[in-house]
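Action item from last meeting closed. Structure (273 res):
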């Protein structure tokens, strides 16, 4: 987001924090669904996006326009949060859409946090991403932006029925729409990271040839926490092709100690002789 949009989103996020403090998990979950439903509406209606971010209109005028359309169709909590957003300045209409979707996602995460399920939802999102990555046909179907989101959402619901929390399914549906303009896999990754951020944790993506034991994972997490100054959420990917060792990615930092990397370095060095 550009600077003006970031400031406007910050105001909306502060309103959400206040709302979460005054309501229970069920109420916040209902508000989250309302916010995401409005995000879907804005995605389908570019003219509405433009009208609600039009700098020629005052913030109050845009809030009144929104209220006239949605009053009685979404809850008061969602309406107040959306009014706070559209009253701000937006650099582009697409950044307003991104902000509404982001606020909806944060509301989903806040509701799961209030229910004590945030860590589990984070893990479920990651594990589903791993399943999809290992199933090329499933990945192709779910990543196909030409197919209706509702149709792909039905498939996700069937795959995960009774296996994950409802919040996890709802967030995966957001990923199907291309959260923040990302690919499906990129959206899932971002949602995992937002869940970790809400728990004040950094995500470490760890690739190994064989699964780490619980104790090995704990020690690795503790070492990374000492480096980054905050708790670390370790996400393992098992890939036999790395042969041995471990590769760790934290943000833009990559620590690659795999045998495969060492073999490639040796091969490259020999080729230069």
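Sequence:
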């Amino acid at each position: 987001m550009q600077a003006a949009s970031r400031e406007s989103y910050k105001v909306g996020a502060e309103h959400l924090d206040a709302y979460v403090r005054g309501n229970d998990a069920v109420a916040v979950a209902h508000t989250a669904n309302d916010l995401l439903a409005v995000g879907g509406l804005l995605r389908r209606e570019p003219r509405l996006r433009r009208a609600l971010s039009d700098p020629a209109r005052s913030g109050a005028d845009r809030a009144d326009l929104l209220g006239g359309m949605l009053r009685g169709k979404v809850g008061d909590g969602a309406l107040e949060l959306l009014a706070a957003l559209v009253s701000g300045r937006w650099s582009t209409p697409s950044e307003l859409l991104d902000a509404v979707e982001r606020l909806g996602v944060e509301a989903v995460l806040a509701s799961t946090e209030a229910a004590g399920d945030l860590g589990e939802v984070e893990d479920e999102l990651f594990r589903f991403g791993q399943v999809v990555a290992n199933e090329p046909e499933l990945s192709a179907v779910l990543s196909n932006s030409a197919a209706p989101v509702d149709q792909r959402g039905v498939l996700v619901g069937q795959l995960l029925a009774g296996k994950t929390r409802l919040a996890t399914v709802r967030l995966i549906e957001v990923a199907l729409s291309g959260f923040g303009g990302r690919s499906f896999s990129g959206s899932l990754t971002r949602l995992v990271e937002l869940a970790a951020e809400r728990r004040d944790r950094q995500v470490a993506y760890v690739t190994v040839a064989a699964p780490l034991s619980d104790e090995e994972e704990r020690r690795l997490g503790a070492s990374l926490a000492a480096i980054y100054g905050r708790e670390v959420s370790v996400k393992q990917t098992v890939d036999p092709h790395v042969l041995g060792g471990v590769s760790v990615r934290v943000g833009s930092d990559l620590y690659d100690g795999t045998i495969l990397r060492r073999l490639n370095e040796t091969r490259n060095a020999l080729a230069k002789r």
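Note appended to the action item: The beta strands are 201-208, 231-238, 246-250, 253-256.
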